[in-house]
Amino acid sequence: GVPGGLRLSYATLGAFMKYPKESLPKKPTQQISDKKFGFFQSEKAVFADIATELGLLQKEGEGVRYHRHPLTFLVEAADDICYTIIDFEDGINLGFISEDYALEYFIKLVKDRINTKKYNQMTTVGDRLSYLRALAINTLIMDAIRIFEEYEEAILKGEFHMALLDKSQYAAQISDIIGISVSKIYKSPEVIEKELAGYKIIADILEVYTKALMNAKNDCATSYDKLLLQSLPETYFDGANSTYELLLGACCFVAGLSDSAAVYIHNKIMGRKL
């Protein structure tokens, strides 16, 4: 690959950093930009360069914390809109949510924009769901734009501390849809079983790789450790001098695995037949 990765612009980097806050164990505030951290200590200098170049507003108090790039609110809204609607639709397609039930909740969201004649001409539930899903996404996009424009001055001053959709005129409908997704999809036995398996798989992979890396760093790697590290791309530990950098590399490797790749590696390290 090309050194420097995607070589994104300062504006792009600033816009997708939802939480411009360093990775230290400081309690989050009520401000949404403090909810999580956005960069590791290894990237602190890079973040400082981005913040300076973009003129991000620094927050007062302990730690490195900044107000968001204004466009971040739109990035977040796009993320919220897609996941809210698409997860709901996935739940319908997987049979966790009945189609009639789903139609009812979609209609509640788009009742002011629906083309009744066009809708009634659709003969299949699939067509109706597709139409309502597209209309719902468009409805929420237009509402997010309205809110952004209404609060633009406060956003630019660093005085807007919530997600755009928290101010949506459709907040109640969004909350209903998310509530159904939580109860019917995220808490379904099938999903919980997969999550439980996922936690175990990730924990096992991290355990063996971090142990091997630390043993290699301390010149006490076993034959197993050496074999294992041959399967770890050098980019994740080449040039890493500190324990922090080694552990970050291991986490980055595991975080980048697809579900199938994680299962494949887990089967290998557990000695299972592939």
Name a few traits of the molecule.
mainly alpha, 12 helices, 274 residues, single chain
Mean pLDDT: 91
Question: SS-based structural class?
Answer: mainly alpha
Strand content: under 5%
Please report the total strand number as a whole number. Answer: 0
Principal-axes geometry comes out as flat
Mind summarizing the main beta sheet? none
Overall radius of gyration: 23 Å
Low-confidence regions: none
Order of helices and strands: HHHHHHHHHHHH
The number of helical segments is 12
Percent helix, as a range, is 55-70%
Euclidean distance between termini CA atoms: 30 Å
List the helices and strands and how they pair.
Blueprint: H1 10-15, H2 44-54, H3 72-93, H4 99-110, H5 116-121, H6 125-150, H7 152-156, H8 171-186, H9 189-217, H10 223-230, H11 243-255, H12 259-269
Task: Explain what this protein looks like in three dimensions.
The chain is flat, with a radius of gyration of 23 Å. With 274 residues, the protein is an all-alpha fold. The protein contains twelve helices and no strands. The relative contact order is 0.08.
What is this structure, in a nutshell?
The chain has about 270 residues and is an all-alpha fold. It has helices spanning about 10-15, 45-55, 70-95, 100-110, 115-120, 125-150, 150-155, 170-185, 190-215, 225-230, 245-255, 260-270.
